[in-house]
Amino acid sequence: MPNQIDTLSRTPDSCLRVLVVGADPLAAAVLRLGHEIVRSQDSELRPFDLAFVDLSTGAELVAKLKSSRSPLIAVVEAMTAEKIDSARAVGFDDVIPRDFTHADLVAKLAIWSPLEKVSSRFVLDPASIGELEKLQLEDGSGLVPTLIRLFIASRKEIDLLREAFSAGDLDTARALAHDLKSACANLGLVRMKCVCHKIELSETADDMRVAVALLPMQFELAKIHLERAKLASLPKSA
Known about the structure:
238 residues; alpha/beta
């Protein structure tokens, strides 16, 4: 039996226009889910909701696609820290391995969909937010805006964590991951919480490497979904 996201991905009112560059098997899989494929040669003429683009694609095309302001997902040979950092450096918003699974593809389409009813399931737990919105601080202000401000401020902890990891200080990286995990748990940010938990539990640098590389992307994704939930006006990324 298909799950809720599978069902929504096939309904006419949630059909996405997906640009695919250099990843034909992925295009075929997107079509099987009932979405429309936009080829790279007509990307200027027809808008697209999100794009899957091979990481080896030239920087000029990536920059042109980025100007559309639609999410760009890099298709990489393997989910290594080097590939993730390379994708982020040229402006990609997310990554997917070339040997993607059905679950990988459904999740990427769901979290980057511009349609609010399907976009947040793997990122933000609405039940957690719903409970928090009932709570207030002693001065009568809402708890959720305060938690969001604290979460946004935690961006510097990601930089500190990555610096500690690069220096080989895994204990500090784990401690910072624990703090970030708590901030994510407070807001129901399930996807980023899982990445932080992976870092916290990793025994070696090799175990930790990919999760550390994913953290900046996961932070930006969390901000997008907090904005979509209309919980606060969040600062834009530099």
